[in-house]
Write a structure and sequence with these properties.
Blueprint: H1 7-17, H2 25-32, H3 36-48, E1 52-56, E2 60-65, H4 72-78, E3 88-94, H5 97-106, E4 114-124, E5 130-133, E6 138-145, H6 154-173, E7 178-180, E8 184-187, E9 190-201, E10 206-216, H7 235-239, H8 245-266, H9 269-277, E11 285-290, E12 293-302, E13 308-312, E14 317-320, E15 324-329
Parallel strand pairs: 3-4
Antiparallel strand pairs: 1-2, 4-5, 4-6, 6-10, 7-8, 8-9, 9-10, 11-12, 11-15, 12-13, 13-14
Length: 333
């Protein structure tokens, strides 16, 4: 049992299975095939990793809690996906998980590879905007995808990811999240999450696509004060309680995997109705910036490919494939 890399997970598993009860050192040593001194050294390493373990001279050891980190050992215990989030690269801090994932993808990283950082110091959103992520309170991660889809489908993958995120928030926290086309998640008009998709492709196929997701999880109202383009919120603020980030990530990855598989199997049209049901922009008056061009009008719906259909103030009809919605109002609200 004392092969490198196997002892600590086995020890942690025994402590967890005791559900907060003490396990004596000699019993642990026998089960692990170690000396009592070696068990003590492994306990010290678990403590250094952030696990709260109480040691009693007569009773032994008991686990009081884990670190507020989404460690591979923690995620693997509850991850139910077949391919998404496997393998998992966990970082304490990085400038940008998208940049890290792109490097891994260029080196041949597998479809489904997950890169997550507890803190992101130079994260970026669409149009080179910054995404700030304080340590231990947000979810900031990127996924390497190699879908069997043409490059023209990349915007659809962003929308499907947004739909999966909305469904996960609604299903697990009963919060009415909605999509601000194409890549923001709003709760009561406040931004809770964003998605950034970056791609390398050839003429007829996607070489790889990196899907970056940033979610405000446990930030307080004070954490989210600042000069944001949209007022911000977090899942904890909206639910009224701190959330388990590891459990949320596992649930989200499962939902994302299901939605991606539906996209590849049935096409984007099979998810269009669900996207329109949770759209924040459908029926709204919007101002859309497309480079130097500005379009103002009412969003009438989405095309079968995911573009916006807008009736402009001049009475013409426009199809918007990409753009930045800089103003959004619902006359009926």
């Amino acid at each position: 049992m004392d092969q490198p890399g196997t002892v600590r997970p086995a020890l942690l598993g025994l402590l967890k299975s005791a559900h907060g009860q003490y396990l004596c050192g000699p019993a642990l040593a026998r089960q692990l095939g170690l000396s009592r001194t070696a068990v003590w050294k492994q306990i010290q390493k678990l403590t250094a990793a952030g696990y709260r373990i109480e040691a009693h001279p007569r009773k032994g050891y008991r686990l009081l809690g884990g670190p507020d980190r989404i460690l591979p050992s923690e995620l693997s215990e509850i991850l139910t996906t077949e391919w998404l989030g496997r393998p998992y690269h966990h970082l304490l801090s990085t400038e940008s998980t998208n940049s890290d994932a792109i490097r891994l993808a260029q080196q041949g990283a597998a479809h489904g590879t997950l890169v997550l950082a507890e803190q992101q110091t130079a994260g970026r959103g669409r149009l080179d905007r910054r995404w700030e992520a304080p340590a231990g309170r947000a979810l900031t991660f990127s996924l390497v995808l190699r879908p069997a889809l043409p490059p023209s489908s990349a915007p659809q993958i962003t929308l499907v990811a947004a739909l999966a995120l909305v469904h996960c928030i609604r299903d697990h926290y009963r919060i009415p999240a909605r999509i601000k086309w194409p890549n923001d998640i709003l709760i009561a008009t406040r931004k809770a999450a964003g998605i950034l998709t970056e791609m390398q492709a050839e003429n007829d196929r996607i070489r790889f696509l990196v899907l970056g997701i940033g979610i405000n999880c446990n930030q307080s109202r004070d954490d989210l004060q600042g000069s944001f383009r949209y007022p911000a919120t977090s899942i904890a603020i909206e639910s009224g309680a701190a959330i388990d980030r590891c459990a949320f990530l596992a649930a989200l990855l499962a939902t994302l995997e299901t939605h991606f598989e539906r996209l590849e199997q049935f096409g984007f049209a099979g998810l269009l109705d669900q996207l329109q049901e949770v759209s924040e922009v459908l029926g709204a008056q919007v101002v859309v910036q497309i480079g130097e061009k500005t379009i103002t009008g009412k969003v009438e719906g989405m095309t079968a490919e995911g573009a916006l259909k807008i009736l402009t103030v001049s009475g013409s009809h426009e199809i918007i494939w990409a753009g930045d919605i800089t103003r959004l109002t619902h006359p009926s609200r």
